[in-house]
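Self-study notes.
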Amino acid sequence: MKPVKRFTGILLPLLFLLNSCVSTASFDQYAYAQTTAAKVEAIDLMSNATQNVSGFTNQIRDVDLKLKKIYEYEKNRPKNEITVKMWELLLDPEKRLYGGFIKRWQTDSTLSKTFVDEAKKLIGSGFDKVAELESKKIPRNEDAIKSFQ
């Protein structure tokens, strides 16, 4: 067997294997930065939930809009289903994360400090999990191939 054919016979399956192993999107600095910034804004907003929600309508709308923008960005990245599912859980008003917290605040008008403090821990952890997933994504195929050279 000629050396070129042997090299091609090894390299092509290796490239196919590397490509097929990539099941999540590659790391995206923008997505990571937006997620961490959104966490800070959401937790800051939640700190006000011991006060009447009517004074925070604009701030709620602004944070919700930012979160929806991040969700849309994530939703349109290829191989990003896990991150998208995590965002859906964070935003769902029927769940016990950010969306559910805001819905409860809007329903009850004010929330107890104890409830807010515990919710902030839980929801902050949810944002951390999204950011952690992003920061641990495997490198793009080009980066993986360069590491073999």
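Second protein, same conventions, sequence then structure:
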Amino acid sequence: MRKRLKLGAGALLVAGALLLAACGSSTPTKSGTAATSGASSGGTSITIKNFAFSPASLSVAPGVTITVTNKDSATHTVTASGGQFNTGDITQNQTKTFKAPTKPGNYPYICEIHQYMMGTLVVK
């Protein structure tokens, strides 16, 4: 019985360490290159997951290429409210790109299919 407890505790300890290591890792990105996470401002990617854009607000340089990845089972779009950009339909696990406007400003966008999904592209 004690041997089984030690083995179980050891497995939990290893699993916990792996989980913490995975949460703390990040992938650096090069300037001007599409990022894969899109988790912070200054990146160049947007991830669609759980019917939401992540990040909800993305700051980029004028004219940079932005990568959009759909991790939902539903089809989505990234469509500027003022018509400056539109990815068209992005199906499950598909990735598309678009160019940010060259004029600095705030560009609100939605999913044309699920219009409650909103985000903002900040060009500066």
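Instructor comment on the second fold: Residues 1 and 97 are 57 Å apart (CA to CA).
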